[in-house]
Amino acid sequence: MDAPLRILIVEDDLFMATDIEENLVRSGYEICGKAHSYEAAIKSMKQSQPDLVLVDIVLDGLPDGIATVKELMRIKWVPIIYLTGNSEEETFNRAKSTFPAAFLHKPFRVRELAAQIDLAMHNFYAGNISGAPGLPDHTFLPTGSGYIRVVKSEIQFVKADRGNSELFLTKSGFHRIYPAKPYQAINISLNLGKLVPYLSPGFYQLSRSLVINLDYLDRIESNQLYIGSHEITIPDGARKPLIDRIQVVRTR
């Protein structure tokens, strides 16, 4: 039996937070934390490690929910659903910059919330990476000693490494940046959640901690996939969505 989805609620209205909690628990979800402010949300995120976060844009004091989400994503990248009674365009545009999974305007029905949660998690695991529009084919990424220019088409895959990311380039891409070094992963001082929005549509999120470039996918077996010389274990439940995403000639 699958473990229930763990949800963190960031809401300064105690009655609203309790009502959401009770209804979601009845729907089969686990509420792993509740927070009413920026500080409480950061603490709960670190302690509970949720799978998804519900965030009210207007919180008790400052920073608001949008600023809170930006900090939460530095701790762990998970789907975000905003709860809001604010319809101002400026607020909406600020919230969009954090790439949320959904917006729900108060008052909302529990059935609607549950549907948005399920859709957010489905898209998250289906690896739907769209990339921000108009991005160049390269980007400068931070390392411990400065910045490197990375051509996106040279990225084979990216792995989460706690608060950082491990970047695996083609050998030619690596030696363009580091001509004298032996080929290896490059440690980027940016977590995977911050990096993904700058990738291109050809990238696919295989799991919470791994994004692959489908252009370099050479072989798929029952539990493994191969990208160049790299052998990668396919997480449980991730093989079928991957097969569905790529073009496969089926025998029947």
From TrEMBL:
<feature type="domain" description="Response regulatory">
    <location>
        <begin position="6"/>
        <end position="121"/>
    </location>
</feature>
<dbReference type="InterPro" id="IPR050595">
    <property type="entry name" value="Bact_response_regulator"/>
</dbReference>
<dbReference type="Pfam" id="PF00072">
    <property type="entry name" value="Response_reg"/>
</dbReference>
<protein>
    <submittedName>
        <fullName>Response regulator</fullName>
    </submittedName>
</protein>
<dbReference type="InterPro" id="IPR001789">
    <property type="entry name" value="Sig_transdc_resp-reg_receiver"/>
</dbReference>
<keyword id="KW-0597">Phosphoprotein</keyword>
<feature type="modified residue" description="4-aspartylphosphate">
    <location>
        <position position="56"/>
    </location>
</feature>
<dbReference type="GO" id="GO:0000160">
    <property type="term" value="P:phosphorelay signal transduction system"/>
</dbReference>
<dbReference type="InterPro" id="IPR011006">
    <property type="entry name" value="CheY-like_superfamily"/>
</dbReference>
